[in-house]
# Entry
Amino acid sequence: MIRTILILLLISSSLLMAHDYHSFAKPEDCALTHAKFDLNIDFENKVISGIAYLSLKKVKNVKEVFIDTKDLDIISVNDISGKALTFELLEKVEFLGRALRIELPNDISEISIRYKTTTKSSALQWLSPEQTKGKKYPFLFTQGQAILSRTWIPVQDSPGIRFTWEANISCDKNLLPVMSGLNPQSKNASGNYHFEMNKPVPAYLIALAVGNLDFKSLGPKTGVYSEPEMLEMSALEFSDLEAMLQAAEALYGEYKWGRYDVIVLPPSFPFGGMENPMLTFATPTILAGDKSLTSLIAHELAHSWSGNLVTNQTWDDFWLNEGFTVYFERRIMESLYGKDYADMLAVLGYQDLIETITDLGNESDDTKLKLNLKGRDADDGMTDIAYEKGCLLLLQLEKMKGRQAFDKFLNEYFNNFAFKSISTEEFLEYISERLALTADELSVMKTWIYQPGLPGEIAIPSSSLFENVDAEIAAFVSGKKEPVQLEVKNWSSHEWLHFLRNLPGNLSLDKVENLDDVFEFTASGNSEIKFAWLMKVIPLGYKKADKAADEFLLSVGRRKFVLPMFKMLAAQPRLKEHAKELYSNARLGYHSVTAQSVDEVFN
Ligand code: BES
Ligand code: ZN
# Structure
């Protein structure tokens, strides 16, 4: 009995203490519980400046608190009465920045930090008017995940530390600021705005965008923000948003955040989407004109449960955020558009996964779900392993227990861990109990999580619609059909992607040209199709596509496209030098997240 209690105590304390080595904070001593930001946005000098008021909870009787900062100019630290507090910025650590150590006299639990961002603050991208759609006003957006929030707000920046927040933002009267909280729907005359998030969230989910923004409602709880020039198109593309929200709630329980809006950002946004609470940040490259790339929005919406409600404890547990979200995203798409549709997404995802495992190597530690990112950038965990291998694990559980039981389990999981952060080990403990796993089943799960590569017996996704595509590819490659004869009527982006990805690597230039003449891929307005095409035909020596690649790389900053395309160009002897020069121009328009990644290609 005593032994059991001791063991339980040991387990639970080690779980509670799961250490985040990507943060300097010591929440077990003193933790942030509420933050208030009074900030001014200065576009002329490209500086955010102001005061962060931090409410702290002393867990132990300590005399100091540690705050994460990186490339911030800390001007002064005070208590609420205005008395100066002693502070120091500790030495710089690669990727992490500098700990701000503040001395806390006995009774102090609220402090204020006066600070400014710097030109190095890498969460921020300040865009000139030319980099926007309207060309008239500047634009600013932030990207916090994984560990960039500390470059624009001094906070405890760890996914295991949650706090509520509010902000007063003042900016140019011609612009509208929006945040990852309850948002205004139009500009006011003062240029001052108040924001609130009254649910505890981790720092990586705090975000800000400022620009010439308009809003359009899409339903009672949903809407879209963008520059006026893109608003109609965005509203059409996302016309199913309210239905998506309802489908998600029908699957895994109440949406806990109030409104759900999407902002379409300028094309330099480095990700497809970012699940900032109440306001997903999205790339304009999903505006395909036919709603065919909106599974990305389903993905970010799903994060309102997996990720934002139940959050990975550390970045080593990243798969808990993304694997669940990919599974959930496909379930939303299945409810809205049917199983055939979701199957296509699953197959494309599986193809990505196999490619990633091949690239990383079957034995690589980075193919384990539980990562070890100590000493590395937390961003390195963002591979298809977390997303697609994570999703496959959940599909395996679904298969073991049946969909009905698994859905019930997921509902409970989101409720049980709502507004909490959870480690992989807690997940294992929870499934073992709630899904009544046998010893064998538990050991299968541990293999998924702690071993590299893919376990032997997995259910490989398949798609009946893609079987038709495969037949058309075969007919085309063998010469049985000319491009005009291919039966492509009603093909969605996904069928086209499958088609392009699976064209043989030795296709003749004649055939490439015939395809382009008929389907005009080089000029495609669909970013996914254009990308897949360029990646295929440039290595085949199809020079007509070269210019399109240049234009694409000069206008789009989404890392998922930009990084592989520069890698591909740099690998072509005829284009290597050109790629380098192109990058030196294009880089100026990229967010730091994209620039940092592509730098490695050319260094
Ligand atoms: N949360 C991620 C984006 C992210 C991950 C940013 C890690 C920084 C570090 C977001 O939900 C995401 O996964 N976006 C994907 C799209 C999705 C459909 C796979 C993207 O941006 O491509
Ligand atoms: Zn995601």
In short: Residues 299, 303, 322, 325 surround zinc ion (ligand 2) (CB under 6 Å). The CA atoms of residues 116 and 548 lie 40 Å apart. The mean pLDDT is 96. The radius of gyration is 25 Å.
